[in-house]
Amino acid sequence: MSQRRYELTDFEWGIIAPLLPNKPRGVPRADDRKVLNGIYWRLRTGSPWADIPERYGPATTCYNRFVRWRKIGVWDRIFDRVSAAYDGDLQMIDSSSVRVHQHAANGKKGGFTDAEAAAGDEPHTRCMGRSRGGLTTKIHALVDANGLPILLKLTAGQAHDGRSAAEQDLAGLGDGQILLGDRGYDSDALRHALKERGAWANVKPMPNRKNVPAFSQFLYRYRNLVERFFSKLKHFRAVATRFEKHDANFLALVKLAAVKIWMRFMSR
User: Fold this and answer.
1) Domain that residue 236 falls in
2) Residue 156 lies in a domain
3) Going by C-beta distance under 8 Å and a sequence separation of 6 or more, which residues neighbour residue 120?
């Protein structure tokens, strides 16, 4: 079969395959590469899960395996392993809001939906909130000097960027490293926390600051790398608009899209 759009190349499959769960016993499962290609097809096109083409196997198989592997941390493990090669000398932090589709917005406001309770799924937050764009979810990203994601998280759309940047999110920043951020991250607490670890927060200060901290406009120009990452991320239509009711499912899709961006960079 010839290579189709959105499918994994041999190089990309060679990276992912060793990180997938083994199944040495029992009934052989559907081909992992075919199913993963179906998941990526849906991720790239934003089509409903039920519309996944038959060449990738039953749509229910693609969805069920996506959810099952999300629950046991497969997608998190793949993202963590791939992103471990990051260049951390210069890091950028920012967020981007995505619109929540009406199909995702009609679930219960926290806890379980009926279907999730019946399936034994875990409680979850929705990470949806009202902002100028209506009902939205905010994707927070920390990227490296190549504009590749190191950390990804979700909050409700109205969440403040600076307050959402928890100290554990920046734990990877250490001696001699620099964090770039816009005015939303301007706080003495963040600057102090990084200074204690030997890092420097080159964050654009608020215009009403009385004690203006050191700030390099030259270095700040590189912050566009995180904005370019969000542009690449939103080429995946199932990320550009949120269709998933479950926040953990949506975050898993965001991480799978980020893995694809990492692998494209590696292939070059």
Assistant:
1) 86-244
2) yes
3) none
